[in-house]
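Pair request: fold both.
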Amino acid sequence: MALAAQVGQNGRMLKEFGTLLPLLRRQSKESGFAWPNGEVFRQAGQGDCKMSRATRSFKLKLSQAGIDTLIDTHCHLIRTTRALIAWGTTLHVAVDHLGTIPAARLLALLASLDVSRYSGEQEHHVGAPHRLWSVATGIVERVKQAAPERSPPTLGTIYILALHELARAAQPAIMEAYLRSQFPDRSV
């Protein structure tokens, strides 16, 4: 079911709680949460859910403009989800969102973005699940296949482009990427 339809069905919760996260509704202390279709999502310790994921550190080399983009994107994601999230989650959601963009559009975005304006010498390390690397390298591979004559983008370029694009994404697309990053084994 599309996110927009889910949000529409749960508009009362959106109005009442001021969040776009009505997708998980509290059922009871014993049963955990449920998706809008009624399927129960159990909390950690209830046997069938792994809430923690193995993480690693990802390096961002940013300029002042790049840091501003990271901060703007992080705040935009927090406002959209109404959840306090880690910096690495912002990078993870951004790369996940970028992974949904068709290769032809990625090529156009790469051509139009002045990456050197956002990359720099200030190193920042953020923790995110190992899956982030797989998604980012998958994007690089798609770009290489779409334009084999061009040199492929670096992972740093992918990270900057992802942050740049997430800051401009529509709320439903952001929520879908956020939910995919939080529940990678569930189709959203």
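--- second member of the pair ---
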Amino acid sequence: MRNKQKGVIAALLFAAVVITGYYYHIEKAELDKQHQIRLKRFSYVTRDPDRRITFSYQTSINQSMNFDVSQVDLASGKMPSDTRLDRQMVIVMGFGSRRMYKGLGCVASIQSHMPFKKIIVYDLGIHPKMVKKLRQMCNVEVRKVDFSKYPKHVRKTENHAWQILELKSILKEYGAFFYIEPDMRLRAPISMLLPYIIKQNGILMDVESDNTTVQVTHPELFRALDMSIVNFKRDFPNAPIGTKFIAAVNNSALVKTLWKPLADCALSWKCIAPFGSEHKDVVPEVKLIHTDMNFRF
């Protein structure tokens, strides 16, 4: 009887081994098949492994960054090729210790799509150890705002006066820039935006449609710029506000009509941060809630 039970158990074990081996071979064959499909797809993507790939952005760290900025002016029709303009355009951001890790994530997203693109980070209170870490990254330049040459209110970074003044300087230095907030992430090279920036006469912004310019701008700012709120609201009833990024290419006409007035406003606290203004989110359609100028230019 015991021998019979042993025989049954042995038969069951043998059957289990055979079935397991059978399914193992089927699964292995299926995995091999999928692997071959992936290899085939990879060959489609890579095409000829000996082909030469061209990039619209800088492909060598040692490549010269000495550009003739005078050759970039939309007003006079002076424009280099898209490839050269893309190489000349720098990415700019600024943050302090509170937004440090968001900033690192933004830098990583930029470098994943544009590994040789120059990035300028403004140090608005970053810890020295993290500044050292940033400076060790390829093509990342860390700058400090020289507040000594500006009025005292510019030191209050929440009013973003520093941003206007430094971006105007960057535009003069490089002829083109892409300013991005540290909590944003890029999913593609910025070169695809160049035709749209040029079409918009040298400035392109991300806009928020929930609030209008009149809703979030302090009335004193309009007075400081010698503008009528009534006329502005009549001519631009749904004027949006810029939020997360600003892309700009030099346009001497815009320098006179936009960047210079903005810089003058940033240098005056009565304009950039008038009494009663706040740096906060604005609830749509709520009266008497205004913020300082912030990104709203």
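Observation on the second member. DSSP finds eleven helices and six strands in the chain.
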